[in-house]
Amino acid sequence: MTRVMVVDDHPMWREGVARDLTEGGFEVVATAGDGGEAVRRAPAARPQVVVLDLQLPVLSGVEVTRRLLAADPAVRVLVLSASGEHADVLEAVKAGATGYLVKSASREELLDAVTRTAQGEAVFTPGLAGLVLGEFRRLSASPTVPAGPAAPRLTDRETEVLRLVAKGLSYKQIAERLVISHRTVQNHVQNTLTKLQLHNRVELVRYAIEQGLDDELS
């Protein structure tokens, strides 16, 4: 059962999201009403996924994301915000958020997003994924993982999966494209993350773009 923490300063919204997640089969291990409380509660609660609003008292959602990942790089942050502004999306992703949903998303979309976030996928409200990929391409002049003789060697299949990840395909789409199982795609992605010493799919996409892999497959 995936462990989730819900962070939002509106009690009714926070309780509603926590209830939907519990009814959807997730274990809500903590809730918090402000950014400071979220940072304090996370170490003991040990969530795998944090569903986080951006506009929070004490510490912003962006700062909470930075601090949570600094304390535990394995945690995955799914922003759930009323804002769909491009600047907010990019700021959250640069801080390390794995996904971004607007609050107009349905209950089913939220449950699916948390499931996919827990699996390491980058999940975005429709229309925002292309924005994030475009920004990573713009930033590709300053790679986070150096290439060169010391760069880890990926298998042909791992490289093939990585190219499709860089194009924004979901695990399901990659599995269908390569005629392999969803689990096999997950395993390839996890192996690649381990080899490259990266923490989530967002970082993996940026690495692939920096290496030009997104331009090698149509």
Describe what this molecule looks like in 3D:
This protein is an alpha/beta fold and 218 residues long. The protein has two domains: 3-126, 3-Layer(aba) Sandwich (Rossmann fold); 136-215, Response regulator (Rossmann fold, 3-Layer(aba) Sandwich). It is 51% helix and 11% strand. The chain has helices spanning 11-23, 35-45, 61-71, 86-95, 107-118, 129-138, 156-166, 171-178, 182-196, 201-210, and strands at residues 3-7, 27-32, 49-52, 76-81, 99-102. Helix 3 (61-71) links the parallel strand 3 (49-52) and strand 4 (76-81). The longest helix has 15 residues, at 182-196. It is globular and about 50 Å long. Residues 141-149 have low confidence and may be disordered.
Layout of strands and helices, then pairs:
Blueprint: E1 3-7, H1 11-23, E2 27-32, H2 35-45, E3 49-52, H3 61-71, E4 76-81, H4 86-95, E5 99-102, H5 107-118, H6 129-138, H7 156-166, H8 171-178, H9 182-196, H10 201-210
Parallel strand pairs: 1-2, 1-3, 3-4, 4-5
Helix pairs in contact: 2-3, 7-9, 7-10, 8-9
What attributes does this structure have?
single chain, 218 residues, Rossmann fold, 5-stranded parallel beta sheet, 11% strand, globular
